[in-house]
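Many introductory courses stop at the sequence. We go one step further.
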Amino acid sequence: MSIGHTLLGLLEKGPRHGYDLKKAYDERFGQDRPLHYGQVYTTLSRLLRNGLVAEAGVESGDGPERKRYAITDAGVTDVEQWLGTAEKPEPYLQNTLYTKVVLALLSGRSADDVLDVQRAAHLATMRELTRRKASGELADQLICDHALFHLEADLRWLELTAARLGQLSAQLAGVRS
């Protein structure tokens, strides 16, 4: 996810302080990975330098001065272009799990055990996401659905791989010969 674009999108509703942007980000997108304050201010600094946001005032209070940021016309255009651009589909070719299966087979260890451990981890995560989805608002439900569908695809791959371990083992033995 592009933090810069997300902050720009949040600024389209009106000028905000960095603190307010962090809070809005965390409420909408940061359930699993909240944004650090340093990231917010570093990103705002870059957006300011690139002309995508502008300072919209400074407020003095009990603490340090608080700058308000507003999105510029260039920032709005940038968000529009980002929203209109498809994300690159990631095929996850030769991921870590595949590597573990092959290395288990090459070393004489049980690839079934590797798959079983991963299956258990996937199922535990799916149960947690299903509980979260049941009690969450619509946005959280959609995020959970996205994750659940990916985990389901991973489980299908785990089952298919388990069914083909004999073939893979034989093929790897042929390569070693």
